[in-house]
Amino acid sequence: MKRKTMMKTMMKTMIKTMPAIVFVLALALTTSCRGVEVTQSAAVNHKSRVSSQSSVLGQVGEVVAQGCVFEYNGSDIPAYCNSRTSECLQAVPPQTTAVLECAGASIPKVNLVEKDLRYANFYEANLKNSYLVMTNFLGVNGEWAHFDRAVAGLANFSHAKLTGADFRFSQLPNAVFSQSHLLNAQFVGANLIEADFYDANLRGVTFHHANLQRTNFQNAYLKDTSFGFADLRGANFTGAQEIESADFRAAKHLDAAIGLPDHIVESYSFK
After folding, report:
1. Do residue 69 and residue 139 come from a single domain?
2. Could you tell me which residues come within 8 angstroms of residue 160 by beta carbon, excluding any fewer than 6 positions away?
3. pLDDT at res. 31
4. pLDDT tens-digit series, residues 78-107
5. From CA 267, how far away is CA 271, in angstroms rounded?
6. Which range of residues forms the domain containing residue 142?
7. Ramachandran sector of residue 210 (left: φ over 0; alpha: ψ -120 to 50; beta: rest)
8. What is the value of pTM for the model shown?
9. Are the C-beta atoms of 91 and 60 separated by less than 8 Å?
10. Is residue 95 part of a domain?
11. Do residues 218 and 160 share a domain?
12. Is residue 140 within 8 Å of residue 119, measured between CB atoms?
């Protein structure tokens, strides 16, 4: 009899506490990043740690980050770098160093104006139509990434790895690509007025129909680089390497470029 009474008491207690248990489990399985819901179902590869700095990106729980991991003030802060959670990226304070792992992420139309994202990994990431004015991409890995149609005036891509990167039809006036590796990158139709490619590796790069007025190509490596229909008024090619193998067919205003050998100007002026 006493045993039955004890069993009934235990059952009643469990029933009464069940809602609280369910609530705790639900809270453990769900967290949010600036209003963007993330669940434990996202737990696949990279474990993240909760830190005292997590308020910078909103409430963050112990979940596994599929997309990005920021290192901010020495602590890892998970962010979820995809089209649903780009607010996490935007929450990084301006002019603050944030080491970012974001390979393969899709974040088109993201606003990263004046963000300091030096040495970040954007390998094969999609940043189409994004706002990147004065953004610091120093030393990033942007190989095969999409920056096409981005607005990125004064952005800093110096010392970056940008093999195969797509900058077609982007607005890049005064952008800096000095000493960057841009093998086979695409700048078709891009606005590169007064951009800086000093000492950059531009092998196989396509500048067709690009605006290259007063663009700096000093000491750049130009093997198999193509300038078809590009506007070269005031472009500076002083000291450019392998310039003989570059393709200037149909380039505009060759005679107004600086540092081009006379025989190249004369040869391509009739093609």
Report:
1. no
2. 137, 138, 139, 140, 141, 142, 177, 180, 181
3. 28
4. 444 443 445 555 555 555 444 677 888 888
5. 7
6. 102-271
7. beta
8. 0.71
9. no
10. no
11. yes
12. yes
